[in-house]
Amino acid sequence: MEKSIMRSRIGIVAMLLTIISTAQSYAVETSLACKEELFFSIGHRFHGSENYYNSLDFIKQCFEAEGIEGYWVESFTTKLGNWEKGETYLTFKGNTVPVEPYPYTPNFHLLNHEKFYVLDSASQLDQPSVELSEKLHGSIVLLANTHREQKYPQVEGEGKLTNETLALAALNTDPNNRLIGYHSRRSLRSVLRLRREAREEFERFQKLAKSLGIVALIQSSNINGDVIRVDESNFVALPDDSSFKRLPVLVVPHSHFALMKSDIEQGKMLTANLSSKSEKANLEIEPNYSLLVRIDPKQAKYKQEPAILVGAHLDSWSVGQGATDNGLSVISLMNLAITLNRNNADLRQPIILAFWGGHEVGFEGSKSFVERHIGQLFGKSKAEKQLNIALYLNLDNGAGKIRGIYTNGNKQAAEIFKAISNDIPKGFVVTEQSVDQTEHILFEHMGIPAFQFIQDPEKYIHLTHHTNYDVLSPELLQNSIYNQELLQTILIKLGDKAKDFSTLKHKYNYPPLTGNVNFTLRGYTEVNEVYVVGDFNNWDMFGIPLKRGEGGWEARIKLPQGRYLYKFIVDGRWIADPQTDLNNLYSDGKGHSGLTEIIVR
């Protein structure tokens, strides 16, 4: 029998008994019971931890107190343990150093340790000399390749998007021209593949390090000052060998790492004390969960309409409180559920709100939902009982105010959002720019119109993202209330327009092999993925995958009569069709060059 997620905790009951109402506008009394306690009484919500299970229970009890009955949990299986972070400390030269353990760091305790080594590159462990092996054996090793400060663009003001920037984004008709946001373009396939490969490489490195007698690893945060960032999502899944016990891995601030590294390289006599207590070090694999709630329209005739699905991820990293990533969005959705449940008269379609688990370890909760309710991610099989979903809206860009929406090159969707923008607070913009690397790409990949909201940065990516500075503040809490109100307005104003959304043209989650137009790329057999992109799919970089075959790649799609221009995307790189003579390549006058012309008669 699956382990119940209804784990009792006295503190949760106390939360519901100590509600102080400071409600304003749509922020109703019970919704405010579901705000600060999520961070101060429960804290971080690292997936598989007791905190995570308690946060699920907390949301359920808030809903039950409001009489919301339409919620359910969905389990999914993935190789995640139930590691619990305990107290961790590090002293160096008698001084206390701020420190955070990597997830799944086991219990360990080192006193008055005197042997250290600075490793310039992980590749040095592949074929170490006898001399290097002797230096590494019994050492605490500092990973020098992690000591690099990440440079971020200067953010105007306090991280608010300016009206000028938003105006430029609104005029942008090229989905691949990134004017706002911070993620580089990657396909769903490459995101999942790169995580898997990095995790495998990390496990290989760990095993090499253990075989050489290294006792602990220390890496640098990539932000200057006292900020500690712990965000290597590639490295948190359990190793395939369940008997393998990881080396301790600790992260220290950039400035502290520099001082430690300098002292060690100067050969100074040094001592360190390290300790990390893991409340659960056995890394048992347990069921994992997402939570969903459905709010039906009051009028029966609308209950069978396609639903709007809105999602935010519940899990967080084990550093900080997980307020900006993504706790305050969770609060917005909880408030939204309570408000809509109290007043659903204006709804014209069902609303499903999703609190995803397993986001930080590879979208595991939303992936499971997609395969259970929609179909196979990279195949033709459909789910036996498909949910009727009109569109998906995602909230995962920090804790700033919502300022607009990315429509990912979907011109028809952009027009629908623009049509309701007069009823939305001034400054809400609609851009055709694409953004990826969060949950909405799973749904878009499956042919469901899916969009991410634009939010004010609020120092998110260059300070709070996966760091010890990811904590609640009064201003951020007000943003959450604002976002909940705005979401409610958008959902109501969409009304019966929700069923008018359609996916991008020529969007396939598997290589299409039927149609009147054939695209082939000869060679490139060593690459991982190839896509064809052109004016026929509004330059959607990852909409038409090619199938690997003997000697190259191929796809076939159906196109009406006309003239078209195209290129290929090879492992994220744009390339002209090598079969086209350089003198015969075209430009479309809109920023795309090196294009091959094709005439369909």
UniProtKB/TrEMBL annotation:
GO biological process, one term: proteolysis
Coarse class of the protein's main subcellular location: endoplasmic reticulum
InterPro entries documented for this protein: AMPK1_CBM (IPR032640), CBM20 (IPR002044), CPQ (IPR039866), Ig-like_fold (IPR013783), Ig_E-set (IPR014756), Peptidase_M28 (IPR007484)
Domain (CBM20): residue spans on this chain: 514-598
Alphabetically ordered keywords of this record: Carboxypeptidase, Endoplasmic reticulum, Glycoprotein, Golgi apparatus, Hydrolase, Lysosome, Metal-binding, Metalloprotease, Protease, Secreted, Signal, Zinc, Zymogen
Subcellular localization(s) per the UniProt record: Endoplasmic reticulum; Golgi apparatus; Lysosome; Secreted
One Gene Ontology CC term in the entry: extracellular region
A GO molecular-function descriptor: metal ion binding
Keyword Ribonucleoprotein appears in the UniProt entry: no
Assembly information from the UniProt record: Homodimer. The monomeric form is inactive while the homodimer is active.
Protein name from the UniProt record: Carboxypeptidase Q
